[in-house]
Amino acid sequence: MVTTRKGKSRLPRWKLPPWLEFIVLLVVAVGVAVLIKAFLVQMFFVPSSSMRPTLKEDDRILVQKISYWRGDVQRGDVIVFKDPGGQWLGDVGGELNPVQKALSTIGLYPTGGHLVKRVIGIAGDRVRCCDKQGRIRVNDIPLDETDYIRAGTSPSDSKFDITVPANSLWVMGDNRTNSEDSRAHRNLPGGGSVPTSDVVGKVWAVAWPWDRITRLHRPDTFENPELLASNK
After folding, report:
1. What's the gap between Cα 214 and its chain centre?
2. What is the pLDDT of residues 186-221, one digit of tens each?
3. Is 6 a catalytic residue?
4. Is the dihedral angle over the CA atoms 71, 69, 122, 232 positive or is it negative?
5. How much helix, strand and coil, in percent to the nearest 5, is found in the chain?
6. What is the average per-residue pLDDT within 5-24?
7. 66 touches 40 (CB < 8 A)
8. Which of 3, 8, 133, 110 lies closest to 62, judged by CA?
9. Taking Cα atoms as reference points, which of 51, 89, 111, 46 lies closest to residue 185?
10. 126 has which bridge partners?
11. I need a labelling partner for 44 at 20 to 30 A (CA). Which of 62, 80, 93, 120 fits?
């Protein structure tokens, strides 16, 4: 007990030992990181060339979740989503050790079971390939995909004509000749579409390597007034 200048006594402040203070700060930091990952933004890495040239192998991408709190997924968005029913990827790796699991929880260790693709059609859309000019059409409106698909590739090397089911998305990689996307899974329930409930979030930016840091934007073709007016 100590005495103040006025003669009144007060209890001394209790100070945390340095080791305990470190543990408290670490727990708080981890808790904040978990909350950020769960509700705001999460980092993933790109494992394949299926999204070239937009995304390259080993790019670190930031996936933000705020956009879909009040709004729906839109055509042209690049999204990360969970493997639908665990049927697109199969077995993607072994068990993580305790350290890897801890880092994964706060978004600092990449794990399998997720894919990254571009949304071409939303629920109710009729998506087909291809017209006489070799273009994909959404609700009979042609897409100009030259801004984002890999140079020298066609919009699709296989024909399809589908109507996207309710609460689902039709997704394709930008590297159309090397992408196991909706086209490759038409034999599965939903005809290759991805349930919107499996969407983790929208790819907002490439965060690493430093010479690849960039914001992603929705291509102009998806802002076509006719296409926007065709929303079901």
Report:
1. 15
2. 999 889 999 999 999 999 999 888 899 999 999 999
3. no
4. negative
5. 25, 25, 50
6. 61
7. yes
8. 110
9. 89
10. 163
11. 120
CA dist 83 and 195 (Å) reads 10
Can you list the pairs that 222-227 forms with residues at least 24 positions away whose Cβ atoms lie under 8 Å?
Answer: 222/74, 222/75, 222/76, 222/143, 223/76, 224/141, 226/141, 227/75, 227/138, 227/139, 227/141
More confident residue, 80 or 42: 80
Q: Is omega for the bond preceding 129 within 30 degrees of 0, making it cis? A: no
Region class of 208: left (phi > 0), else alpha (psi between -120 and 50), else beta: beta
How do residues 166-175 score in pLDDT, each as one tens digit? 999 999 999 9
pLDDT in tens, 129-180: 999 999 999 999 999 999 999 998 899 999 999 999 999 999 999 999 999 9
| Amino acid identity at 133 | Q
Mean pLDDT of the 78-92 span: 83
CA dist list (Å): 56 to 63, 65, 117, 157 = 15, 22, 12, 21
- pTM here is 0.79
Whether 50 is catalytic is yes
Catalytic residue chosen out of the listed positions 6, 15, 49, 50: 50
Domains and CATH numbers, the chain: 43-229 (2.10.109.10)
| CA nearest to 110, candidates 46, 204, 184 | 46
Among the listed residues 117, 179, 182, 193, the single catalytic one is: 117
pLDDT above 90: percentage of residues in the chain: 52
How far is 210 from 208, CA to CA, in rounded Å? 5
Determine contact, residues 44/61, Cβ cutoff 8 Å: yes
